[in-house]
UniProtKB/TrEMBL annotation:
Belongs to the SufE family. Transmembrane segments: none annotated. It comes from Pseudidiomarina aestuarii. Residues 17-122 form the Fe-S metabolism associated domain. It holds the Pfam family SufE. It comes from the Bacteria. PANTHER family: SUFE-LIKE PROTEIN 2, CHLOROPLASTIC, SULFUR ACCEPTOR PROTEIN CSDE. InterPro entries: Fe-S_metab-assoc_dom (IPR003808). Gene3D superfamilies: 3.90.1010.10. This is Fe-S metabolism associated domain-containing protein.
Length: 122
């Protein structure tokens, strides 16, 4: 079972290559955030809002009849939104076992974002 959710080593290598070094990673994160549509007003509801981050964050998570997770994320902060999108890329479409085995720290380290986040932001 992969600790990266549904992602395999090829997926992770591609993510890491896109993210690149620290300066390039900021550019990539902002571009990723801009390229993904924001939630509409009804999706930015109190029941979808998640707390614990300085930026406002919304998330929807449901398991379908195929027992795979449908995960959508949004934030008012571009970098936060992009980081959530990278995490969601590992978990959207994942089985319950893949979600249970997911290791956030391993994923962030593998794609080169571990040094980017302080412990309080994980």
């Amino acid at each position: 079972m992969s600790v990266y959710g549904k992602l395999n080593e090829t997926d992770l290598s591609e993510q890491a290559q896109l993210i690149g070094g620290r300066k390039q990673s900021m550019r990539y994160l902002v571009q990723l955030s801009r390229s993904t549509p924001a939630f509409n007003d009804s999706e930015r509801s109190p029941e979808n809002e998640r707390f614990g981050c300085e930026a406002r964050v919304w998330m929807t998570a449901n398991y379908g009849s195929d027992d795979r997770l449908t995960l959508r994320v949004d934030s008012e902060a571009r970098v936060v939104k992009a980081l959530l999108l990278i995490i969601a890329s590992a978990l959207d479409g994942a089985t319950r076992a893949q979600v249970a085995a997911y290791d956030l720290d391993a994923h962030l380290q593998r794609v080169g974002l571990d040094a980017f986040l302080t412990a309080s932001r994980r």
